[in-house]
Automatic annotation (TrEMBL):
It comes from Jiangella rhizosphaerae. It comes from the Bacteria. The chain crosses the membrane at residues 20-43, 63-82, 87-106, 112-129. This is DUF7144 domain-containing protein. Keywords: Membrane, Transmembrane, Transmembrane helix. Pfam families: DUF7144. Residues 20-130 form the DUF7144 domain. InterPro entries: DUF7144.
Length: 136
């Protein structure tokens, strides 16, 4: 019959599954990048630019711990996202958003790297939403 809607549940396509797998892989990779950023700040605080008149006066040592904690959470969420659950996707969306915000605030200290991380976080969020995991 033409013109009628099917009431049978649809199986997610390979594009949707690939989107979630890509997002999970990128979350783990973003966690590694954040971890490197945090370790670099812990090992050598002089590596990052000192911004004396910045509105958010946070020391580089504090940024190191923020990046390390976000890194750990991103990697855990990335591995959980491989399971394909909606809860993991929601947590991954929130963490990718938090990582983007953290790197936006870190932007004056190391602009190029922060912009790369922000772009990857946005791409991960787009990939999760586009996959349709919240609609299933």
């Amino acid at each position: 019959m033409t013109g009628t809607l099917s009431t049978q549940p649809t199986r997610p396509g390979s594009w949707a599954e690939a989107g979630v797998n890509f997002a999970a892989t990128m979350m783990i990779l973003l966690g590694m990048f954040q971890g490197l950023e945090g370790l670099t700040a812990l090992i050598d605080e002089n590596f990052y630019a000192d911004v004396p008149a910045y509105a958010y006066d946070i020391s580089v040592g504090t940024w190191a711990w923020i990046h390390l904690i976000v890194a750990l959470l991103l990697m855990i969420a990335g591995f959980a996202l491989f399971a394909g659950s909606r809860a993991a996707a929601g947590v991954a969306m929130v963490l990718a958003g938090l990582a983007a915000i953290a790197n936006f605030l870190f932007l004056p200290h190391y602009p190029l790297w922060s912009l790369v991380i922000i772009a990857l976080c946005v791409f991960v969020m787009w990939s999760i939403v586009r996959s349709g995991i919240f609609v299933r």
